[in-house]
Design a protein that fits this description.
The complex is a heterodimer of chains A (250) and B (259). Chain A has nine helices and eight strands. By secondary structure, chain A is of the alpha/beta class. The chains are: A alpha/beta (250), B mainly alpha (259).
């Protein structure tokens, strides 16, 4: 389903990734002299995810977890190695970063749905389920900028879950909601597990343990370990020198 | 490059929705919403009529409509450019969340600009009767002129969209360039009024937009054929289109990592 072989993604290391045109002209000589360092966000990463598998991805902040999901979503092309994804991928709206703030929740559902390749009819069919699941009520016709962070992430999660794509990418969304939402999210996760291929990034080890059949531990862009969840989490926690599961970072 | 065109064509439904929702989002913040689409060009027109006709006592009897059509067409070009500069960098969250052809972002700005042109044109039509502009068969040239402008604007906007993503102050520089371009183009004046005969050709070739603007005036208001200098615009538009498309296709993947 997802086959990653010796994957490498590099970024240019610059103080300012975007610079000014004026600065460019004024500091031209300095720009030329400056050596452009490179930084591998991911390197030598290889793994296979079978259809219907749920894979947890863990690692410290900046270890390349989100970058990996973006590669699978086709946003970053690999600089090294190969990746093949057999199937359509859901959105990666982690905490609703891709929403248009001025538009209503309803409009955003349509826009996002079309973005990931659904047709208007397909969206008509799932929109009620999304709205109900996200518990938005009357807020669904309010601009997204009026939403609380919980509403944002509930909507993002609902779209990812209901969009019926073969591969569902979930980036730290589960831990954003309150207890009631988490329970609902877990029910939905259980529903799609087995049917879809899920890649789940989380800092909440309990979430990972509950859902993942396999865990990948990324450390500074490299694969530190991969395998049975209990074992890998044990190793990761030992390396982080934390006895108990770390609290949520959000 | 052909690949790029195919990609965008395949996602034309997405383009439609991006345009639709973008326009919705832009109008939502205004109390009068949709009405502003008509008020905007009218107020702009009024400003320049006061300046030229009343303060400087220049321009002929048909000046308001000559001004209006050039103003609308220039505004389409200028607003497309200014939208393109930030079209990608302002959508960081979206670009890093879903894969789609990025060209859709600058392209949607150009299409929105064309709708603004259309709204303005709706106001222009009754004015054409009031100011007794002759309606001739030459009006059929209008779609051709619009197409030339559309193609050229796409090229320019694709380039600006890439540079605007790398250079955060390009917007400021561009605003200045647009202002200069406005005065250098035959909008507040007509070429025959201001440019001495021997220099006409030089002027028209140096500013490909000039031939286009004069042609708009010819076919809509003067009822004659477009000037031969529209050809300069055509050549320039095609070159800009090819270069823009090539450069954008080349840079598209790099952009995602820069923003």
């Amino acid at each position: 389903m997802v086959n990653v072989n010796d994957l490498g993604i590099k970024f240019k290391m610059e103080k300012r990734r975007r610079s000014g045109a004026l600065a460019f002209i004024l500091e031209r000589s300095r720009y030329r002299q400056r050596s452009r360092g490179e930084f591998w966000a991911l390197r030598h990463v290889s793994f296979t995810v079978e259809r219907g598998e749920t894979v947890g991805i863990i690692g410290r902040n900046g270890s390349g977890k989100s970058t990996l999901l973006r590669v699978i979503a086709g946003i970053y092309p690999p600089d090294e190695g190969k990746i093949s994804v057999g199937g359509e991928v859901s959105t990666l709206f982690s905490l609703g970063a891709g929403f248009n703030q001025e538009l209503s929740g309803r409009d955003n559902i349509y826009l996002d749905g079309i973005m990931i390749g659904l047709t208007k009819n397909q969206i008509d069919g799932i929109i009620d389920a999304i709205i109900e699941f996200a518990e938005l009520g009357d807020f669904i016709d309010m601009p997204v900028r009026t939403y609380s962070s919980g509403m944002h992430s509930r909507l993002g999660f609902a779209i990812a879950i209901y969009s019926d794509k073969d591969i569902v990418l979930i980036d730290e969304i589960m831990s954003a909601g309150d207890a009631a939402f988490r329970q609902k999210a877990e029910i939905e996760m259980n529903r799609i597990m087995g049917e879809r291929t899920v890649l789940l990034v989380s800092h909440d080890m309990n979430t990972i343990k509950r859902f993942a059949s396999k865990v990948i531990w990324l450390d500074r862009g490299a694969m530190a370990a991969m395998g049975e969840p209990g074992e890998v989490i044990e190793q990761y926690l030992a390396a982080s020198r934390v006895k108990k599961p770390p609290p949520d970072e959000y | 490059m052909i690949e790029q065109l195919k990609k965008v064509w395949q996602r034309r439904e997405l383009l439609y929705y991006v345009v639709k929702f973008q326009m919705k989002a832009e109008n939502k913040n205004k109390v009068l919403g949709f009405v502003w689409s008509f008020l905007d060009p009218l107020l702009l027109l009024l400003t320049y009529i006061v300046l030229v006709s009343i303060i400087f006592k220049r321009g002929g009897p048909q000046f308001p409509i000559l001004l209006f059509i050039s103003l609308l067409s220039w505004r389409w070009f200028a607003s497309s450019l200014s939208r393109s500069v930030t079209s990608i960098s302002s959508k960081v969250g979206l670009v890093q969340s879903v894969r789609f052809p990025l060209a859709i972002l600058p392209l949607s700005g150009i299409i929105i600009g064309f709708f603004e042109w259309l709204f303005g044109f709706v106001i222009l039509v009754p004015m054409l009767f009031i100011f007794e502009a002759p309606l001739t068969v030459n009006i059929l040239w209008l779609p051709v002129l619009l197409l030339i402008q559309f193609v050229g604007t796409i090229g320019a906007c694709l380039i600006v969209a890439v540079f605007g993503t790398y250079l955060s102050d390009l917007g400021n520089i561009l605003q200045f360039a647009i202002r200069i371009g406005f005065y250098l183009s035959p909008i507040l004046y007509s070429v025959e009024d201001l440019i001495p005969e021997p220099l006409t050709m030089l002027y028209m070739l140096a500013n490909p937009f000039a031939g286009l603007l004069e042609s708009y005036k010819n076919v809509i208001i003067r009822g004659v054929a477009p000037t031969e200098y529209a050809l300069a615009g055509l050549v320039f538009a095609c070159v800009a289109f090819v270069v823009g498309l090539w450069y954008f296709s080349r840079s598209e993947y790099k952009l995602v990592k820069v923003i």
